[in-house]
Amino acid sequence: TTGSFMLRKVEAKDDKLIKRIQELVDATFKGWGHCQVTRDRRNPLFTALKVEQVVHIENAKNYMSFWSKRAQVVKEFKELSVADQVTDWDIKSRQVSMEGFEGDTPIDPSVNEAWLWHGTSPAGASGITDTDFDMGRAGSAAGSMFGRGLYFAESCMKADEYTVSDGQDRCPMLLCRVILGRLKYCDAEFPFDVSEQLEDACDRNKGGNHHAVLGDRQKVRGTFREFIIFDNCQVYPEYLVWYSRVPPLVQKR
Q: Assuming Cys at both sites, which of 7, 69, 160, 172 could form a disulfide with 233, CB separation 3.0 to 4.6 Å?
């Protein structure tokens, strides 16, 4: 355990929690399109990922900010017309339930709340969990195809594209609680051309009435879907998952 009253990072000792997260990794270490390697992949693709350590993040400031924003998003979503309250997005990370490890309030699919993955570096993991996702750096690590936001994946295979090793063959992914609310769907072939419109669609100051973007490269390129938010209060990085790659190697890059 490290940290203070406002910030604690606690290594998980609960075998059931570690097993459940491994099950979630196993279930989402795949693509649901025909292509499992994208241009963004920096790392070799192995056969599987093995969870080596799970750290529970207890960041009081971020936690309170998330719950305040979540309440706002839920209110706005419930005020939409029934036709606009679309929730049938089939988010694949729901294939394994985190029930029992979600505190007093379970994930609520009725407002498009989900557990999603975010791949990062050891320094990035430390910075995000010490403070928060830095919106000033949004899109800097892997581009901003769907706008200058924070990118999350239902597939940990997608998140594994962006991780950086700690030098001991372990890499960090964040398992995040994300409130998506009303999703702006994008299956544009060249989303860079509409990225500004996607940002504006989620910006209340510009008349936007969405909360997040679903970028569907699975449909367009056979790769992965990504979920993008433009307010770091819509995400709470609850678990830092250190993992190793399990041979044999599938593809070098």
A: 69
Return d(Cα 120, Cα 179) in angstroms, integer. Answer: 20
**Entry field: residues in the chain:** 253
3-class SS of residue 169:
coil
- The answer for residues whose C-beta is within 8 angstroms of residue 185's C-beta and 6 or more apart is 213, 214, 216
Give the containing element (helix H, strand E) for 51.
strand 45-59
Q: Which residue has the tokens 């790659």?
A: 245
Distance between CA atoms of residues 176 and 114, nearest Å: 8
Distance between first and last Cα of the chain: 36
CA gap 152, 204 in Å, rounded: 22
Q: Which residues contact 163 (CB under 8 A, 6 or more apart)?
A: 43, 119, 120, 121, 171, 172, 173
Segments in the chain forming alpha helices (H): 15-28, 60-78, 122-130, 156-159, 195-201, 217-221
CA–centroid distance for 24 within its chain: 13
Cα 179–Cα 180–Cα 185 angle in degrees, nearest 5: 170
List the 212-216 sheet strands across, edge first.
2-3, 7-11, 45-59, 235-251, 171-179, 113-119, 150-153, 225-229, 212-216, 183-186
Which pLDDT score is estimated for 42? 84
DSSP state at residue 168: S
- pLDDT < 70 regions, the chain: 1-5, 137-143, 252-253
